[in-house]
Design a protein that fits this description.
about 65% helix; about 150 residues; alpha+beta; elongated
């Protein structure tokens, strides 16, 4: 087995482990920060109290968690886009020779198909990673008032 194949297999295994850990964590904590939000409560003395909420499929509603749990959930959600993009690119790399060989007589050549597909996977992974990071930062910097939906 050559070095490139070993690296691709390790990326695939690590990406799938990351997805499995995310799924288990989602089940344990009961939700996801990317569906939840952060709310701020202003007391009569003018003090700001932050409340961190997750939303879970099973619970069907928002529920409050600690800051650490919310940040963990947000970061782990972001990591999924990175690792799943890497997994797809690794699988495409491993299948490259077979794809090229099977698409010699088709309308689009195999190498062109691989390039287009790899570009789409990369673009989608980068866009959603940026989107999730922006959401997390926006929630941390500008939480919505408590009681406003």
């Amino acid at each position: 087995m050559d070095r490139r194949t070993k690296i691709c297999i390790w990326i695939i295994v690590l990406g799938l482990v990351n997805f499995l850990v995310f799924t288990m964590a989602y089940m344990i904590i009961g939700g996801d920060a990317m569906k939840g939000d952060i709310r701020v409560e202003i007391t009569d003395q003018g003090q700001r109290i932050l409340h961190y909420f997750l939303v879970g499929e099973g619970r069907g509603r928002r529920f409050e968690v600690s800051r650490g749990v919310w940040i963990y959930s947000a970061i782990h959600s972001i990591s999924l886009w990175i690792t799943m993009g890497a997994v797809m690119l690794s699988m495409l790399t491993l299948a490259k020779d077979r794809i090229v060989a099977s698409m010699r007589t088709s309308i689009i050549r195999g190498r062109t198909f691989i390039t287009v597909l790899a570009t789409l996977v990369t673009l989608i992974s980068v866009v959603f990673t940026i989107w999730f990071v922006a959401y997390m930062i926006r929630q941390l910097v500008h939480p919505a008032p408590l009681g406003v939906s």
